[in-house]
Write a structure and sequence with these properties.
Helices cover about 20% and strands about 30% of the residues. It is α+β, with helices and mostly antiparallel strands. The longest helix has 16 residues. The radius of gyration is 16 Å and the shape is globular. Zinc ion binds next to helix 2.
Length: about 190
């Protein structure tokens, strides 16, 4: 089931999420499936539970190539529960981000180049993953949502509206094929 995505200013987006404690809960599995479905339906590459109004430490990574990120890695949608950053690069990289909860805005945001993360997977197995570059950025963006933050809190070096981003950064006018149906503009990372 596709769920509505909350927009910036909604108090539920701005409070830290609670850890998942009951991995056997049928409602948890339904929530994860809904998050994946909602993320894909909105042309996102990631989504976090607080974005649909659920205060749980659950994020979805769903990177795949798109018109905007032709080199984005293709991965099966992956649920990441109760993530903890074990290690991260010292260096920062700047790239453009958008957010399904921040309509019509793109920001040039600094992120760690790589992160190593422990978490629980969809069926409650402990995992450790190392993500770098684009996936590390998507993870850090979604992880911020679990902390109650959107990318605007990361002090973007520049902010552009969607049309300016298309024109100035991508060097092309907004293409009809790049505009999804539903609420908001297409957004990277989520
Ligand atoms: Zn977001």
């Amino acid at each position: 089931m596709v769920r509505p995505i909350l927009q910036v200013g909604d108090p539920q987006l701005h409070r830290p999420a609670e850890p998942v404690t009951d991995f056997e809960d049928a409602a948890l599995q339904a929530l994860i499936e809904d998050l994946i479905e909602t993320c894909l339906a909105a042309n996102g590459v990631g989504l976090a539970a607080p974005q649909v109004g659920v205060s749980r430490q659950i994020l979805i990574l769903a990177s795949r190539p798109s018109l905007r990120y032709p080199s984005a890695p293709l991965m099966p949608p992956t649920a990441v529960l109760n993530p903890r950053i074990l290690a991260q690069s010292a260096d920062l990289v700047w790239d453009w981000e958008g957010c399904l909860s921040v309509p019509n805005q793109r920001g040039l945001v600094p992120r760690r180049r790589w992160v190593t993360v422990s978490y629980w997977d969809q069926i409650g197995r402990p995992q450790v993953s190392h993500w770098q570059d684009f996936l590390a950025r998507v993870f850090q963006h979604e992880y911020d949502h679990l902390l109650g933050q959107v990318f605007l809190a990361r002090h973007p070096e520049r902010l552009l509206d969607e049309a300016s981003y298309q024109r100035e950064v991508l060097g092309q006018p907004l293409s009809p094929t790049a505009v999804p149906t539903g609420n908001g503009t297409p957004a990277i990372p989520d």
